[in-house]
Amino acid sequence: MDENSATIEIIGLVQKFHPPVPASPKTRDKVPSGYGTREQCRPFVAAAGIGLTVPSPFSWGYCTPAEVPPLARSFQSPVKGGCPDRVFYIRDDPEYGFVGNQFAVPDKISQIAGHLVIPGLSFFDREDQQSLVKVHLPYIFRTDRDAGLLFVPPINRKFSNGLTMMSGLVETGWYSDAVNLAFELPPSPGSVHVVAGDPLAQVLPVPMSAASTDAKMLEPHRRQVRDTLESMVKWKQQHDLDRSAYKRISKLQIADQQVEEPAS
What we know:
This protein is an alpha+beta fold.
């Protein structure tokens, strides 16, 4: 990994888990022929390929009792008055140490961290939040001290399981605990079926200074304004000559950033 790449450290709390992987710029298996597809848009694929993809650590769902898959464990929401016509279910996965909606924690972790309980699904204890569910990750994310991780839905991909993810910014430079992802469930008659390893979220490293951002409006007489407008004219001329100019120039910019500075 080169010096311009961001590194996210992952500390497992269980013996085996589905790890986060670099996000792919590929967002669909079949790309239509011809010019103008979204895959030819550099900003689109760059966004889809940023950060890591977070997979579901286990198989689970939310549906009517009749829809619960064979061999799955179903249970009612523990929230008072919540989801009376729906049940949640999880599927045991002994290979990954996940049984009965809980991960097994190895002795070598417990000897250092003490008694740990890592659930699969958990719930908010308020009646007005009965439409939310939490998915617990069996590992810890760490970043540089001045950085954090922004958790968002998979970018530019369909979230076909009906869930609405609640985005969150975690200060992983100092926060030493596993993250749980919060999702809003679809209203009736919607149902949710998630298979272990399915993409659940995308996680992006960001400087924590970005958490407080301001907008500065530049006056028209500023030199920077004139330079930018002149650059815009040049850019439009380049695009008129080459519809793929953005992609080509972007690659050149990345190559320039990766060139090592000469030794002094």
